[in-house]
């Protein structure tokens, strides 16, 4: 078939643009073991770094003796805080405006904290040397409970700032207090609560967990003494931000630093922050003049780099007798660990937790978050979610269930009568957000119908009868969740991290023969950017996706951007991609008009070409235009065809979803089985449905893990009880169910292609769906609230406490 | 530490070298031989990212000393492409059914699937799920991995039938 005989539809299809289930271009390498992850990098003369870590959660470091380690053949250096202090690098700034010890400076604040950095010729020698470093500790009283941490006589954890009354986010009211963040109208909310027909009150705990990507964090730092140029390959979700931070703290000029994110084996928020390992590797490379690799092992990963959640959320929700919600009140005690290393935009110390009014039209609300130091690892990252949105989703979706119990109402119906209506968008929430678009009722009805909700409730009622009659020991839980996310940070006017505005970027060059390369400020960690961004370009430019190379992750070549997390790549960089493409198209239009000898306004875009209006046989394809752009002198136009766009979104995007989980629970063993899971996602315009579905499967499985067993647990001495994959729950293929995916499409009105972002929704909305299923199974027997994770033991305990084992 | 001499066959090629007796097979493959398909996700035999085929069995190479592999025949994901360099059936099905995202678990997963289909050429979905339960994936939720393996089994069986 030639170009001439193809219909516009056929031409469009051949581009593999937006909406196409395009196979991923990354996979040819990955399926053959030809990925290039950080631990695959091997440079001549490369050394290995490894940490000596604290076995104690809170202790004074009395002395460090590295003589025996240094004497071991193959050991090149041992760094301690004393060595870093003259460079001012024994502490580093965190993303949250706090500072964190790079190596223990006088004391340690959590188990697994970095105390010394050993550099040796190979991994094995480095590990041996770690054992030979002698550290003398004096144990101090440990605080792992954030409520205890705020008592007047609680031990002082951060001696460095104990007298500091003002923190990065306002006044501190106690030596272990970090910040107070208030939103909404307290007075009005409390008045509503006082006068309400019904008020439901509950403490909801979202436990501490960890993103645990299959690849741990690591880097290779290489200082070239001759050129003065520092190159760092690493597991960075935000390579440009890392470059700026490295420059600011090391004093090395930014143009002399090159940060490269190679293939990344999953991130989920774990790879957003800056870790002591990066700083130590850079220093070690400068000191030794050789490249230095540091890759943490799994135990180090779970114990020291970026945990997630750990929010104690006290809620009060008010309603009329017939179920209209009239107000929401929330106080959060946020356990941040030993240092405040949350990855949140500067003005949002609790992230976007103020999205906690969810999908509901709640007239008035008040939120207060107190951040607290404890003897636990620092972090507080968005584990496959937008900043603290997962906590917010869990909070409101539990509060709705509790209110339904209080009202004696069906929880699906309670949601239905309180949803923000389609005609209310753009909707201004009581806690300050402007939701861009949504159609919650349509999605909800579609979901309920798909699972035959009424039928399920009948089955459940019957099951309860049979249980009571002693005919079965299994209960049926129906877990509901409807949540609105807030992603795509974000407008630079209110979103920055350490002063870096959260825009993103794309640079496109069309080659003379009509193929192209695009470079972005984001970085894929499995999302398939090389595939999907090419699809956006294919649709915008009329160039087949297979003729477009997408490159990310090298700060020397890619335009500046804030990276990939918080589902921001599609909303922000995806928009930049479309905008840059439109600049190219504008120039292409002038070239086409010139070649066709008509006025600019007399040609129009048609899939992959400009045609003369009313005369479609006369056209110039993008390919022809590209060639002319470089090889023909066109009056008034510079040669070439390229463009760059830095996109600062006018607003966030607000994807939403309706999830329903049907779970069987064995009352005697606490075992559970997901019988059905229906997931409807509305992420606006869909770029690659295959990839969206894959993201939903993966995010739901993470949600399953979190809700049903995954946690970072500490004992009262501050020992990590779940530091290996033996204890830290990751579902295998065996306990993971099949998911049914579905969608509605409500495009974002302010986004150039209407896309809203999807990667994280399933984790955000999945957790309440699984957890609500467990709660729902026991609702008839009086269960109101049971904290996650719902592992077999804890489920058994629920049944025991309800007297179901008698 | 004194070193011992090891000789093994990796992806059809004879290799030998000196290694400390405590050196793990995964480190020998990755660091001495530059075979970086098998990955390290835990070094405690929980994740399966390091899975290779050793004398016709799936093993987690982080839990095998290279000295134990002396004389063994090892296949890694690098050895599973067709002789002409095109993707092998399992690899192709993983691509077709979107059975991978970040790709970190993929080499271990595909190597395991390869052995599973030798052990059981006609697995049910349950058997596939059970058979790969030693390999963790954080990205895909397994649904498409299972689909890919089932599709590979069907295609391999059809090819076998056609050849008979
Ligand atoms: S690295 Fe071998 S099983 Fe995880
Ligand atoms: S594809 Fe990322 S761990 Fe499996």
Automatic annotation (TrEMBL), chain A:
Residue stretches making up the Aldehyde oxidase/xanthine dehydrogenase a/b hammerhead domain: 32-141
Superkingdom in the source lineage: Bacteria
Catalytic reactions of this protein: CO + a quinone + H2O = a quinol + CO2
Keywords annotated in UniProt: Copper, Metal-binding, Molybdenum, Oxidoreductase
Top-level EC class: oxidoreductase
Pfam families listed in its UniProt record: Ald_Xan_dh_C (PF01315), MoCoBD_1 (PF02738), MoCoBD_2 (PF20256)
InterPro entries: Ald_Oxase/Xan_DH_a/b (IPR000674), Ald_Oxase/Xan_DH_a/b_sf (IPR036856), Ald_Oxase/xanthine_DH-like (IPR016208), AldOxase/xan_DH_MoCoBD1 (IPR008274), AldOxase/xan_DH_MoCoBD2 (IPR046867), AldOxase/xan_DH_Mopterin-bd_sf (IPR037165), CO_Mo_DH_lsu (IPR012780)
Cofactor(s) in the UniProt record: Mo-molybdopterin cytosine dinucleotide; Cu(+)
E.C. designation(s): 1.2.5.3
SMART domains (alphabetical): Ald_Xan_dh_C
Signal sequence residues: none
Molecular-function annotations in GO: anaerobic carbon-monoxide dehydrogenase activity; carbon-monoxide oxygenase activity; copper ion binding; iron ion binding; molybdenum ion binding
Assembly and oligomerization: Dimer of heterotrimers. Each heterotrimer consists of a large, a medium and a small subunit.
UniProt-listed NCBIfam families: CO_dehy_Mo_lg
Main function: Catalyzes the oxidation of carbon monoxide to carbon dioxide.
Name of protein: Carbon monoxide dehydrogenase large chain
Organism: Meinhardsimonia xiamenensis
Source lineage: Bacteria, Pseudomonadati, Pseudomonadota, Alphaproteobacteria, Rhodobacterales
From TrEMBL, chain B:
GO molecular function, one term: oxidoreductase activity
Keywords assigned: 2Fe-2S, Iron, Iron-sulfur, Metal-binding, Oxidoreductase
Phosphoprotein is among the record's keywords: no
Gene3D superfamilies assigned to the protein according to its UniProt record, in alphabetical order: 3.10.20.30, [2Fe-2S]-binding domain
Pfam family, one: Fer2
CDD domains: fer2
Domain called 2Fe-2S ferredoxin-type: residue spans: 4-80
Metal-binding among keywords: yes
Name assigned to this protein: Carbon-monoxide dehydrogenase small subunit
Protein species of origin: Meinhardsimonia xiamenensis
């Amino acid at each position: 078939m030639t170009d001439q005989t193809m219909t516009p539809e056929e031409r469009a299809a051949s581009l593999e643009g937006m909406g196409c289930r395009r196979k991923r271009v990354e996979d040819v390498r990955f399926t053959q073991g030809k990925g290039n992850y950080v631990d695959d990098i091997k440079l001549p003369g490369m050394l290995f770094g490894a940490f000596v870590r604290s076995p104690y959660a809170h202790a004074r470091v009395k002395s460090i003796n590295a003589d025996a380690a240094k004497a071991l053949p193959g050991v090149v250096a041992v760094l301690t805080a004393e060595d870093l202090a003259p460079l001012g690098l024994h502490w580093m700034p965190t993303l949250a405006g706090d500072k964190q010890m790079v190596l223990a400076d006088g004391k340690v604040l959590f188990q697994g904290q970095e105390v010394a950095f050993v550099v040796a010729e190979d991994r094995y020698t480095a590990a041996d040397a770690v054992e030979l470093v002698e550290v003398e500790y004096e144990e101090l009283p440990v605080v792992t409970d954030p409520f205890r941490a705020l008592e007047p006589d609680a031990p002082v954890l951060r001696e460095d700032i104990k007298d500091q009354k003002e923190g990065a986010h306002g006044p501190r009211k106690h030596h272990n207090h970090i910040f107070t963040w208030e939103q909404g109208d307290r007075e009005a909310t409390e008045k509503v609560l006082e006068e309400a027909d019904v008020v439901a009150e509950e403490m909801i705990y979202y436990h501490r967990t960890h993103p645990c990507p299959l690849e741990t964090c690591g880097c290779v730092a290489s200082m070239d003494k001759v050129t003065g140029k520092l190159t760092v390959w690493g597991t960075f979700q935000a390579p440009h931000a890392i470059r700026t931070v490295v420059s600011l703290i090391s004093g090395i000029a930014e143009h002399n630093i090159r940060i490269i994110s190679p293939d990344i084996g999953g991130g989920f928020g774990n790879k957003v922050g800056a870790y002591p390992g990066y700083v130590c590797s850079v220093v070690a490379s400068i000191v030794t003049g050789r490249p230095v690799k540091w890759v943490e092992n799994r135990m180090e990963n779970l114990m020291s780099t970026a945990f997630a959640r750990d929010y104690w959320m006290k809620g009060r929700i008010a309603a009329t007798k017939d179920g209209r919600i009239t107000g929401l009140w929330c106080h959060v005690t946020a356990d941040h660990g030993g240092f405040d290393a949350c990855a949140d935009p500067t003005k949002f110390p609790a992230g976007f937790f103020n999205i906690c009014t969810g999908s509901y039209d709640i007239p008035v609300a008040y939120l207060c978050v107190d951040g607290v130091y404890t003897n636990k690892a620092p972090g507080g990252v968005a584990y496959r979610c937008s900043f603290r949105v997962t906590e917010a989703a869990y909070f409101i979706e539990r509060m709705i269930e509790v209110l339904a119990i209080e009202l004696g109402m069906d929880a699906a119906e309670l949601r239905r009568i309180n949803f923000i209506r389609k005609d209310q968008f753009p909707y201004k929430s009581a806690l300050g957000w402007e939701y861009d678009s949504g159609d919650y009722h349509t999605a909800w009805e579609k979901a309920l119908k798909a699972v035959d909700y009424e039928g399920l409730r009948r089955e459940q009622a019957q099951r309860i009868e049979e249980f009571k009659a002693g005919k079965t020991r299994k209960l049926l839980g129906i877990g509901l969740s409807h949540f609105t996310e807030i992603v795509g940070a974000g407008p630079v006017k209110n979103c920055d991290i350490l002063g870096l505005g959260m825009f993103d970027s794309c640079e496109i060059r069309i080659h003379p023969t009509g193929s192209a390369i695009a470079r972005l400020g984001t970085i894929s960690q499995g999302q398939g950017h090389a595939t999907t961004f090419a699809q956006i370009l294919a649709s915008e430019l009329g160039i087949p996706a297979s003729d477009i190379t997408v490159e990310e992750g090298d700060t020397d070549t890619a335009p500046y951007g804030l990276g990939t997390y918080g589902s921001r790549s599609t909303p922000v960089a995806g928009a930049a991609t479309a905008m840059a493409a439109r600049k190219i198209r504008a120039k292409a239009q002038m070239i086409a008009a010139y070649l066709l000898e008509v006025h600019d306004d007399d040609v129009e875009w048609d899939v992959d070409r400009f045609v003369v209006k009313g005369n479609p046989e006369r056209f110039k394809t993008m390919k022809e235009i590209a060639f002319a752009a470089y090889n023909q002198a066109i009056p008034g136009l510079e040669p070439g065809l390229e463009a760059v766009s830095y996109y600062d979104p006018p607003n966030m995007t607000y994807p939403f979803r309706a999830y329903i989980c049907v779970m069987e629970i064995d009352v005697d063993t606490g075992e559970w089985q997901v019988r059905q899971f229906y997931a409807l996602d509305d992420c606006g315009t869909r770029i690659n449905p295959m990839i969206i579905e894959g993201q939903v499967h993966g995010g739901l499985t993470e949600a399953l893990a979190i809700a049903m067993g995954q946690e970072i647990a500490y004992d009262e001495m501050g020992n990590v009880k779940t530091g290996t994959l033996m204890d830290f729950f990751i579902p295998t293929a065996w306990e993971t169910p099949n998911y049914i995916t579905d969608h509605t499409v409500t495009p974002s009105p302010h986004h150039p292609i209407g896309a809203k972002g999807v990667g994280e929704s399933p984790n955000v909305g999945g957790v309440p769906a699984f957890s609500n299923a467990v709660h729902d199974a026991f609702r008839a027997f009086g269960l109101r609230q049971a904290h996650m994770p719902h592992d077999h033991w804890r489920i058994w305990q629920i049944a025991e406490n309800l007297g179901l084992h008698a | 530490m004194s070193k011992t001499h090891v000789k093994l066959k990796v992806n059809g090629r004879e290799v030998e070298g000196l290694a400390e007796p405590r050196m793990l097979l995964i480190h020998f493959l990755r660091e001495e031989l530059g075979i970086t398909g098998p990955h390290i996700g835990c070094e405690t035999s929980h994740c399966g990212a390091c899975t290779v085929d050793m004398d016709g069995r799936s093993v987690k190479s982080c839990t095998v000393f290279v000295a134990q592999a002396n004389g063994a025949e090892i296949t890694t994901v690098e050895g599973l492409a067709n002789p002409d360099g095109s993707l092998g059936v399992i690899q192709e099905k993983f691509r077709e059914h979107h059975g991978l995202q970040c790709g970190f678990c993929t080499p271990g997963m595909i190597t395991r699937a390869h052995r599973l289909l030798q052990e059981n050429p006609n697995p049910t979905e349950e058997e596939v799920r059970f058979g790969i339960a030693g390999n963790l994936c954080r990205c895909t939720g397994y649904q498409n991995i299972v689909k890919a393996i089932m599709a590979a089994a069907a295609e391999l069986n059809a090819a076998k039938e056609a050849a008979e």
